[in-house]
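Backbone shape codes
____________________
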Amino acid sequence: MHRRLLGLARGTGGLFALTWGALWVGGLLTVAQAALFSQIVDGAFLGGHTLSQELPRLWLLLGVILARAAVAGLHEITARAAAVRVKAALRRRLFAHIQALGPLYTRGQRTGELTATAMEGVEALDAYFSQFLPQIVVTALIPLTLLLFVFSRDWLSGLVMLVTAPMLPLLMVLIGKGAEALTRRQYQMLGRLSAQLLDALYGLTTLKLFGRSRAYAGTIARVSDQYRRATMGVLRLTFLSAFALELLATISTAIVAVEVGLRLLYGRMDFSSAFFVLVLAPEFYIPFRMLGLRFHAGMSGVSAAERIFAILDEAPMRPLAPAAPSTVPVRAVILEDVSFVYPGEARPALSHVSLRLQQGERVALVGPSGAGKTTLAGLILGFLTPTAGRILTEYADGRVVEGPPPPEQIAWVPQQPHLFHDTLEANLRLARPDATLEDLEEACRKARLDDVVRSLPEGWRTVVGTGGARLSGGEAQRLALARAFLKDAPILVMDEPTAHLDPQTEALLEEGTRRLLEGRTALVIAHRLYTVRTADRIVVLDEGQVVEEGTHSELMARGGLYARLASTARVFLPAAPEPAGEPVLPGGPVGVEGGVPAPPPEPSGAGPGERGALLRRLLGFLRGYEPQVALSVLLGALTVGANLALLGTSAWLIAAAALQPPLGSLYVAIVGVRF
């Protein structure tokens, strides 16, 4: 998994190489800082140098400190920039692949989990690439660099560091085995929680009507508590690993300090080298400690990447679009002995279907619910790939290409069109992004939507809301017709609306449908008597097979399935929802390039007063947890104080040992540093 993640870093334009170079330069500056500091202290305390004598070194030390800070800032900026590029590229790739997978894949996934993967999952990689990955390089590069310089000054201290260092990565490996499983479970619980919340939002009306909102809230609370427990398990292990690494690093630093101090005491080491080693010892172990702190971010990124790559590894169902110019008209769409079986299903949705849709022909698909009508439409649209048989597209220039018609030449009008949270104009321009305002007005006039546009408070600029919340069902259907008019594709695939339309709306839709069908090659999943009677040919499906074919009068005369459906009015009444075996095809136009709805406007920055109020509200969430917060702050302060005390005691021990006092006077300091 780490290798696949590293592969994503190749498209960052050398930002990671710049990051790693900055890290290595920072390591060299750390050595320079330690060398200058030890020389200044040695000269001032043992050499008797005045301030003027040490001033050049002090200025040089200041320059090194500033350069080190600048390099650290450069490393942070480049690492963040690289992470942003990786996330943006991965989101584009993920979204494009989900589009290629099509409705067959998305219908089997929970929308909330997919959303969590595309958003939180990709976002989890930010810490992986900006923190964890650079820290791995730091841990591999900086200690080795420092070790080379320590060996050049004092081989015994270098040997102590070399022996103690492997304990830290070994501990991380042992802890990592448990952390990986816990982090994976945490991410799975996050996806489940996101799915539950989205289901609740989509089904809020249903839950209210059935009085189940409180019960469903209890379900969400249970899932949320499971996610909380999973998160706390990960945090406990993270804090345990951080504590263990901190303890080992502290003990290792203390061992170096005691070893250096004792050798100073017996005059076997000069003060400058001892102080140089003491200053570098914490820097040597810091990368291991920081890797432990950022290990959780790395495991979170790996868990998220597993889900992302699982989606990317899915083989697309949609075939490649035919390499035919969109200017060449399609003469016919041909299905040759086509069968289709949904994954996990035993019974085929379509079985040995052969059909020819000729240019300018209007074909009506009729059959009971679950007969395979939506599946057949999905195959022609290119959303599905035949399990057996093939789809051919015959062009006016005589070429026959395997595959569905090119997206530019086909329009799709669904029963339930999807409207984005954007303006009415943007939702309509999905069909043709370069359309003029006159083109939009003409399409709306043909679809009888012009009166709706005039009635909206802001006209074309009115935000219709997600799913067309500000439009009625009939108005949304007319918007779908307007999209098809605007695209003006020669081939039309349409699923007639049937859901509880009032007579006036039904009349408007029938008029718009009549206009839309004129002069086009059309395949219509028909539910209305007008559409069936005016069709050039009626294809009757039952249990995935074509059982009858002909005109309305011919089929009525035969007295078969069509006649029975017509006599009981089942052909022309609102159809039941398609069963689980058939997908709900997407509601947008097919093959639109560009014209994507604009993202929501960015929120304006809050003023000082608003920020203060927001801060007070956030602090209000801490009520009831004051003891825990106070304890956390106290422990953090004690940790910082203990680190400072360790460093100060170690420095005093070495400075005192350089004067070679009796060993007994240093026992307390030695024991304090050791433990």
